[in-house]
Every structure is written in structure tokens, then in C-alpha cells.
């Protein structure tokens, strides 16, 4: 195992002491790789084999799975680096690895937001949103998300010198030890962009959609026979969704703001620097764990997917499960009844013309 780099000055008078991050990273990233790979491969299997008929919600989920898997595949390289504190794979792979990290994090945030907005439209505006909630529109939204995420992650990965050398230990670092000038000239602008577009706006959207759905559930007219079951199902889905979103992404993104302030010397003082540098590795590990938590949204918030896992035969990939039934089961019962009644009236009128 290569020796860890000696402490270097982070600012003029402050010395960093955060080498604990290397064993922490190597342990957590190894666990995330194993669990994330297994759960997301299972998710791909469920979506491609069990859920033969797909809708806009599964479109968002499939893109979320792809985002997770792209990052998971880079984790072995990162684990090797954290164990040896040396990057022997060259600058291009370092750039790709870091770009995929930000692609995964902010892609996950935006796709989770898409799922939240889709649920909001389905429950709060079930009739007016029928023309919006289509697979075609979902694909357009997903394409826009990928363009937005890549426009932020690729510059971070490819416009900077990704590797730096330590001549004393003959080690190569991957995306570490950037100077204050690099932070001021480029990285601070990237942080502002990804924090605004990739975190704060999606956070507000998730909170707004969840609050509106909860307000809708409180209306007496939305609860009929069997409504309590549906209400419990929706509440479970909302709380799981918000927990994953807040637990994985708030610590890292809030700390990233302060980290950028320290690195650009906007926020000065060794105490602030020490706190930020100590929290950063822990928050990063929590953020990376979203690869493991994302599949919980697929498996435990949809009765249809749970049934498909229980009833699916490994040798049979033709089992037909309509995921739209899960979305419909999450809509209050009387709304479904009203929709069926409206549909019957329309068909009756057409037949009598």
C-alpha cells in the first residue's frame, strides 16, 4: 500500500488533517459498489422483463437506473485509488470517473424530482394532466435532464487538470489539491450552477409536490371506500421518497457551498476550514449511497413491482405486468370511479349518435 501524502497547507496558516477520508472512502465505496450493482441490475431485470407495458413513470425510473449503473461501474477504480492513494489509470479515466459522479448525483436528484412531479400531477390533477403525462413527453423531459446534467458535469471533469503529482511519494492524485485560483476561476462557478439548478430548485419542487399531495389527501372527497389503504400507500411513498432525497443529498450539497466558500477564501479561519474538511468526506459517502437507496423507491413504494418480484419466474420473461395499475392504485378511489363514470358516459353518447 502506498504511503498517504503528508499534510499540506490548505490556506496560508492552516494545515489539513483529513487523511481519514481514504480508508473511509475505500470501505464505503466498496459496499456501495456491491449493493448498488446488485440492486440496480435487479431493477433493470424487473423493468425489462416483468413490466412489459411501461408508462412515463417507468421512463424516469429507467433513466435513474442507468445513471446509477454508470457511476457504479467506476467505483472499483476509485476504491483502488483510495486504498493506494495513487491514480495509475491516466487522466482520461480520472475525468470520466469524476464526471460520472456528478452526473449520477444530480441526475438522480432531477429524475427523483420528475417522479415527484409526475405523482403530483397524477393525484392532484388526474384529469387535466392526462395530456401531459405521456411516454413521449417523459422521454423529452429525460433527454432535457441528461443535457442539463452533462452540461454541468462534463466541464467539471474535462476542463480542469484532473491529476496532480506528488514528487516526494511518486503518487498521482485524482481531482485533489486544486489551488484557490482554480476554485475562483472555474470551480466556484460550477458549484453555483449545480447547486442552483441541480439541488435547490429540485428540493423546492419536491417539497411543493409532496405538500400539495398531502393537502389533497386531507380533503374528505378524496377518501371513499378503500381510500384509507390508498392513502397509506401514498403516504409511505412520499415519506420514503423525501427521506432518500434529504438524507442523501442535503448534507453534501449544503457542505459543498461552505467548502467552496473556504476554498475561494470567502470564508476564512482555520476552524471553519477544519469543520468543512471533516464533514465533506462523510457527506460525500452519504451522497454516494443514493445508488443503493434509489431502488427502494422501485421495490417498496409500488405494489405492482412487489407482486412482480414475488410472482416472477427466473426462466420466464414474458410475465405481463402493467405498471400503470400501480399509479392508478395510488390515486384516490373516488377519482378512479369518477374517471370510469365519465368514460362510460362518453362511450354511451358516442354509441347513441
UniProtKB/TrEMBL annotation:
The chain crosses the membrane at residues 28-48, 60-84, 96-117, 138-160, 190-214, 234-259, 279-301. GO terms for molecular function: lysophosphatidic acid receptor activity. Its main location: membrane. InterPro entries: GPCR_Rhodpsn, GPCR_Rhodpsn_7TM. GO terms for biological process: adaptive immune response; adenylate cyclase-modulating G protein-coupled receptor signaling pathway; angiogenesis; phospholipase C-activating G protein-coupled receptor signaling pathway; positive regulation of Rho protein signal transduction. It is found in: Membrane. It comes from the Eukaryota. It is a multi-pass membrane protein. Gene3D superfamilies: Rhodopsin 7-helix transmembrane proteins (1.20.1070.10). Residues 39-298 form the G-protein coupled receptors family 1 profile domain. Pfam families: 7tm_1. GO terms for cellular component: plasma membrane. Keywords: Adaptive immunity, Disulfide bond, G-protein coupled receptor, Glycoprotein, Immunity, Membrane, Receptor, Transducer, Transmembrane, Transmembrane helix. Belongs to the G-protein coupled receptor 1 family. This is Lysophosphatidic acid receptor 6-like. It comes from Nothobranchius furzeri.
Amino acid at each position: 500500500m502506498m504511503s498517504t501524502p503528508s499534510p499540506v497547507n490548505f490556506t496560508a496558516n492552516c494545515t489539513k488533517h483529513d487523511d481519514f477520508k481514504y480508508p473511509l472512502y475505500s470501505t464505503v465505496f466498496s459496499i456501495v459498489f456491491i449493493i448498488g450493482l446488485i440492486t440496480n441490475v435487479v431493477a433493470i431485470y424487473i423493468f425489462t422483463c416483468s413490466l412489459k407495458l411501461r408508462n412515463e413513470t417507468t421512463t424516469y425510473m429507467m433513466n435513474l437506473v442507468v445513471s446509477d449503473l454508470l457511476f457504479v461501474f467506476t467505483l472499483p477504480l476509485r476504491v483502488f485509488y483510495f486504498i493506494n492513494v495513487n491514480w495509475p489509470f491516466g487522466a482520461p479515466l480520472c475525468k470520466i470517473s469524476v464526471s460520472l459522479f456528478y452526473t449520477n448525483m444530480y441526475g438522480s436528484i432531477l429524475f427523483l424530482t420528475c417522479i415527484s412531479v409526475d405523482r403530483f400531477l397524477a393525484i392532484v390533477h388526474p384529469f387535466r394532466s392526462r395530456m401531459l403525462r405521456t411516454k413521449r413527453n417523459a422521454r423529452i423531459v429525460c433527454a432535457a435532464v441528461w443535457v442539463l446534467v452533462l452540461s454541468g458535469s462534463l466541464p467539471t471533469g474535462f476542463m480542469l487538470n484532473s491529476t496532480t503529482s506528488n514528487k516526494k511519494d511518486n503518487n498521482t492524485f485524482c481531482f485533489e489539491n486544486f489551488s484557490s485560483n482554480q476554485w475562483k476561476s472555474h470551480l466556484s462557478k460550477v458549484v453555483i450552477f449545480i447547486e442552483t439548478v441541480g439541488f435547490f430548485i429540485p428540493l423546492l419542487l419536491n417539497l411543493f409536490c409532496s405538500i400539495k399531495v398531502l393537502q389533497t389527501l386531507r380533503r374528505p372527497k378524496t377518501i371513499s371506500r378503500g381510500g384509507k389503504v390508498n392513502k397509506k400507500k401514498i403516504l409511505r411513498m412520499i415519506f420514503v421518497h423525501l427521506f432518500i432525497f434529504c438524507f442523501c443529498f442535503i448534507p453534501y450539497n449544503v457542505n459543498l457551498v461552505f467548502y467552496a466558500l473556504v476554498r475561494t477564501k470567502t470564508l476564512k479561519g482555520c476552524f471553519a476550514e477544519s469543520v468543512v474538511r471533516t464533514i465533506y468526506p462523510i457527506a460525500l459517502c452519504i451522497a454516494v449511497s443514493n445508488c443503493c437507496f434509489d431502488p427502494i423507491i422501485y421495490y417498496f413504494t409500488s405494489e405492482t413491482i412487489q407482486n412482480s418480484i414475488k410472482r416472477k419466474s427466473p426462466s420466464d420473461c414474458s410475465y405481463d405486468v402493467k405498471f400503470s395499475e400501480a399509479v392508478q392504485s395510488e390515486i384516490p378511489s373516488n377519482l378512479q370511479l369518477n374517471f370510469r363514470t365519465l368514460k362510460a358516459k362518453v362511450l354511451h353518447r358516442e354509441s347513441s349518435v
